[in-house]
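Person: Please work through this fold.
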Amino acid sequence: MNFYKHLFLGMVVLVSSCKKEETSVAAPTFDLMIGNSTISEDSKLTLPTFVPLEVKLTSDITSSDRLLWDFGNGEQSVDRSAIFYYDHPGDYPISLTILNGSGSVSKTRSVQIEHRKIVEAKANTINIASARPSVQAANLAEIEIFLRIYKKSEIDVIPPLVDGTFSAEIIYESSPQKYTLGIDKELSFPKIDQSVMLIPPGQAGDHMGYCLYAKIDGKDHLLLSNWAAVGVSFHEDIQQRSSSYNLAYAGTSLTIYGAY
């Protein structure tokens, strides 16, 4: 009798142990990525606003498990992976929670986010043949070049261009610099208001209008802008905390440098 009693008790302990193992919640793991690069957990990197971040679940879950991402900015996701970005500076917790019938467990990582601030801009090879409004360059020798930055009120709508000027708030305008036509000279605009942000193309990248102008006979002529048809490239160096935004149109180029 004692043999069967001990056998029964042993079976109860074994069944209870197995049941507990099936319903327990394992601690999740996930990767935080920029493009194809994984950010290590011990990294102290500061990341810029509007850079796309990706999270991927790397631990196994069962069909009874549910997952919830919380990015600390009011946005959430229930997918195994998600892409998101931050549009304001701050220290954000990124948490992944796994839930099932026996409870929940979470894993959290933090990211520090800052705005890119424009530190300098450089213009090269000025060509006024495509200026808007158009100009007659035959009798021109020296003109003035300046940088203007607009901010529009609606992210999804590019303001209309009227006589070379966008119908938007001007948040920065540099002092004009003299430029002799026909001479391949670089113009530098080093003293830009540090409160002006550099936002990459894509995402909310067209919220700011970065424009190069020529002032001729007292009138402003648009040479190039990311709000118009231009060639655009953007380079980000996360390790050096620096960015560069290049615009090119009809032989004129403008590079804007940012840091964070």
Q: What stands out?
A: Residues 77 and 208 are 29 Å apart (CA to CA). The longest strand covers residues 103-114.
